[in-house]
């Protein structure tokens, strides 16, 4: 089949062979990674987005892509982190630096406004755990402003309001709050 025939919308016969479908499926799989959350759920993430995390980037490079990479983050929080990473990895490919920075700033502003204190706090913990610098910076600034002058007990009650915490998780939250408030 000629090149003109294949580019004019007619599919080449090779595109429908089992080998071609398998090759396409493998290419698609290589563009995503599976993550196993703290609450034992699987979350799929685009490879480019996952690589914004220093931790995931290192594990992908070491060959852990075929299996689910364990992360110390709950599913609900990881899905929010994925939204941030998807947007930032997409914007990273934009050619205009000025437009890219303006779009990132707009996204970050809108994104952080949608988060209540508890969501922001858990995402901050996740960003630290996964070493996602941009997200740590974004959430760290707003958390510092929101915690300023408030007692730790009040902050803990804000976090526990909609979240069931195990005793271990509550201890970790208290340690992290101590670091933020001090």
UniProtKB/TrEMBL annotation:
<protein>
    <recommendedName>
        <fullName>SKP1 component dimerisation domain-containing protein</fullName>
    </recommendedName>
</protein>
<dbReference type="GO" id="GO:0006511">
    <property type="term" value="P:ubiquitin-dependent protein catabolic process"/>
</dbReference>
<dbReference type="InterPro" id="IPR016072">
    <property type="entry name" value="Skp1_comp_dimer"/>
</dbReference>
<keyword id="KW-0175">Coiled coil</keyword>
<dbReference type="Pfam" id="PF01466">
    <property type="entry name" value="Skp1"/>
</dbReference>
<dbReference type="InterPro" id="IPR036296">
    <property type="entry name" value="SKP1-like_dim_sf"/>
</dbReference>
<dbReference type="InterPro" id="IPR016897">
    <property type="entry name" value="SKP1"/>
</dbReference>
<feature type="region of interest" description="Disordered">
    <location>
        <begin position="1"/>
        <end position="32"/>
    </location>
</feature>
<comment type="pathway">
    <text>Protein modification; protein ubiquitination.</text>
</comment>
<dbReference type="InterPro" id="IPR011333">
    <property type="entry name" value="SKP1/BTB/POZ_sf"/>
</dbReference>
<feature type="domain" description="SKP1 component dimerisation">
    <location>
        <begin position="133"/>
        <end position="175"/>
    </location>
</feature>
<feature type="coiled-coil region">
    <location>
        <begin position="35"/>
        <end position="62"/>
    </location>
</feature>
<feature type="compositionally biased region" description="Polar residues">
    <location>
        <begin position="1"/>
        <end position="15"/>
    </location>
</feature>
